[in-house]
Automatic annotation (TrEMBL):
The lineage of its organism: Bacteria, Bacillati, Bacillota, Clostridia, Peptostreptococcales. InterPro entries: DUF2001 (IPR018989), XkdM-like_sf (IPR038628). Gene3D superfamilies: Phage tail tube protein. This is Terminase. It comes from the Bacteria. Pfam families: DUF2001 (PF09393).
Length: 142
């Protein structure tokens, strides 16, 4: 394997997200992760635990610099009415010095919570939006 150079490590500063096609430029951090769900399987005369894959759970978090009321605009009425919006999130990380870019789409996104109002004296405002998703596609990979 060839020796790698430090400038090839991808830099999060070049990340972007789009929520339902709208670019959210004030993103501070973004995470999408998938966790496997398994059931334990035990066999007679074996002491080891086996596992059967049963599916996955997708989750993530968007942390925003507080510029807009993103969570409230998207979710306030939905939480009160029970009619949840159909949400799709596309995330992209594209450092020009890296070997390429990564782009992922999460669909059937449901948000767990949103903050109506939060502030701290002499502190920059942030908004955190934790969510779950039912499906995903790895559109581009490095």
């Amino acid at each position: 394997m060839a020796k790698l150079k430090a400038n090839r490590v991808i830099n999060g500063t070049f990340g972007s997200i789009w929520v339902n096609g709208e670019k959210w430029a004030e993103v501070k951090s973004f995470e999408l992760k998938v966790q496997g769900q398994y059931e334990d399987v035990n066999f007679c005369e074996e002491l080891g635990k086996h596992r059967k894959y049963m599916g996955f759970e997708g989750s993530g978090t968007i942390t925003l610099q507080k510029v807009y009321d993103r969570g409230a605009k998207l979710l306030a009425e939905a939480f009160k009415s029970g009619e949840m919006p159909d949400v799709k999130i596309v995330g992209k990380l594209a450092d020009p010095a890296a070997f390429g870019h990564t782009r992922v789409e999460a669909t059937e996104v449901t948000f767990d919570e949103f903050t109506l109002l939060k502030f701290e004296n002499k502190a920059l405002g942030e908004e955190e939006l934790p969510f779950q998703f039912a499906d995903y596609d790895l559109i581009d990979a490095i």
